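Intended use. Records like the one below are meant for learning the mapping from a protein sequence to its folded structure. Do not use them to infer anything beyond what is encoded.
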Amino acid sequence: MTDVAALDHRRSENSSNFRMWEDFMLPISTLKLTRHYKRRSYLFREGEPCDGTFVVLDGDVALSTANASRRPIDLGYVRAGAVIGLCETIGASTYQTSAVAKTDVTVHLIPKRDVLSLISDDPATGMHVLQMLVGDFSGLYSRIRRMRCRRERSLARLLQ
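Structure written out for the chain above:
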């Protein structure tokens, strides 16, 4: 899952994307890098060059971004099964969020060049990635709608 859209998902909801990602990784299984991060360690920081896509295998990862005055905004966290950094791997040169290990974390890092190569060489893989991104954007739209509804209810209470 990508960063923001993954926030509302629990481990069981991530499992279908995790299986899809494992299918995607099969052809490059020798190229993935397993990394371990201690609690409070950064996987990556907002603005750093994008190295690739992370698949969280174990542990919790907190996501955040900075506002205009560089104050951190907590975006929540993701768990095992989440895929983070996919959007940046495909379309950006730097990470758009920061990811910090809330617990000890194990991830697979799939280098950017390998992700891009596999997507361009294999239409089925490209379709899997597209399905993952569509699911992420649908989740993001739902989150935005919920936020808007809460804000409207709060405003209605104030006006009563």
